[in-house]
Design goal:
This protein is α/β, with parallel strands linked by helices. Helix content is 35%, strand content 23%. The chain folds into two domains: 141 residues, NAD(P)-binding Rossmann-like Domain (Rossmann fold); 195 residues, 2-Layer Sandwich (Dihydrodipicolinate Reductase, domain 2). The chain has an eight-stranded mixed β-sheet with strand order 13-12-11-7-10-9-8-14. A six-stranded parallel β-sheet has the order 3-2-1-4-5-6, sandwiched between helices.
């Protein structure tokens, strides 16, 4: 299957390695900065290089394209790829507005191609086994869950790429760093979000436009609740990313660098040994990206070949975006916000913290 990558920044190594691990034919890479493409040469060998992705699509005609550019460009590039007949893997978030996300979804359905959003942590062994327990009904009635992201991002991080922390191209801590765990919370609570009340703030990052802290209370349609707490202010480095899931007959905590370790596994049914589960379904990972890219790519390839939707399809990818935009709306208006949203965009909040 011919594959091409658009965007050769920080995350591109993981996409390239996942493509190689799944035996994709890497036909081309594209970036507006030739230096970034040259840096990937040792990993790739000879591939065609482009600074114009539209030219690449025309000349290479890839079957599958991964989009790993700044977030604000995801939608435009994805739409062009879909119109060219390509299946697409889109780095999180799927887009920065409800309108763009909906257009990606509807156009892909019209053109008969598949969209996958890169929420790779769904493929962690720890998360997959927790989701299996949920589908088997072992949690009983869902009560609440908590997504906690205590990270650090300093000024040097933002200087590496000026688009980071801007409303037009990124959003803040929730949209960039916390969105993976927010996606997992929504997925594992087994229900759509119904209402959210939130606070966001920029407490110590005056060099970015968006938030570096967010806290939200979410009500789900099944009566369960979610708590989201995310920050990039933790001194002096990343502390933890944890996910708690509480049911009437089970408690699970998944933690580690990228929610890759089962910390607590307590079920009333006694069907498995907690120590065994922690050992078998926990992974030691070198960084926050984990090992999920390769199985995510594998799932997308299988979906294309079998004509089924990938696990993290466009509608799944929209869910986390929609909840974060609802959090932004609630925090800016000081009121609870109902879901689903009919509209909303990150750029709606431009200037949000300028006078605070």
């Amino acid at each position: 299957m011919r594959y091409a990558l658009i965007g050769c920044g920080r995350i591109s190594f993981h996409h390239i390695q996942a493509a190689k691990n799944n035996n994709l034919e890497i036909a081309a890479i594209c970036d507006t900065d030739p230096k970034r493409m040259e840096e990937k040469q040792p990993l790739l060998g000879h591939v065609n290089k482009y600074t114009d992705y539209r030219e690449m699509l025309c000349k290479e005609m890839p079957a599958l394209v991964a989009i790993a550019t700044e977030s604000g460009k995801h939608a435009e590039i994805a739409i062009d790829c879909i119109r060219a007949g390509c299946h697409v893997i889109i780095e999180k978030p799927i887009a920065l507005s409800i309108k763009d996300a909906d257009q990606i979804i509807s156009l892909s359905e019209e053109k008969g191609v598949f969209v996958c959003v890169n929420h790779q942590n769904r493929f962690n062994k720890s998360i997959q086994y927790t989701y299996r327990a949920l589908k088997e009904g072992r949690f009983g009635r869902m009560l609440h869950g908590s997504a906690l992201i205590y990270w650090n991002r300093n000024e040097d991080y933002y200087k590496q790429a000026p688009w980071r922390g801007t409303w037009e191209q990124d959003g803040g801590a929730l949209m960039n760093q916390c969105i993976h765990n927010i996606d997992l919370l929504c997925w594992l609570m087994g229900s759509e979000a119904e209402e959210v009340f939130a606070y966001t703030d920029n407490l110590k990052h005056p060099f970015i436009e968006a938030e570096d802290f967010g806290a939200a209370l979410v009500k789900f349609r099944n009566g369960a609740y979610g708590v989201i707490e995310g920050t990039t202010n933790v001194y002096p480095k990343n502390l933890e990313e944890s996910l708690y899931v509480f049911g009437e007959s089970a408690t699970v905590k998944v933690g580690g660098k990228s929610v890759n370790e089962i910390i607590e596994w307590n079920f009333a049914d006694g069907l498995d040994d907690a120590d065994d589960i922690k050992r078998i379904f926990s992974e030691t990972v070198p960084n926050v990206y984990g090992y999920g890219h390769t199985p995510l790519y594998g799932d997308m390839i299988e979906a294309i070949r079998k004509g089924r939707q990938p696990l993290v399809n466009g509608r799944e990818g929209k869910r986390a975006l929609e909840l974060i935009l609802a959090i932004y709306q609630s925090a800016s208006q000081g009121v609870p916000v109902k879901l689903p949203l009919l509209s909303g965009s990150a750029v709606d909040f431009k200037g949000r913290f300028e006078n605070e």
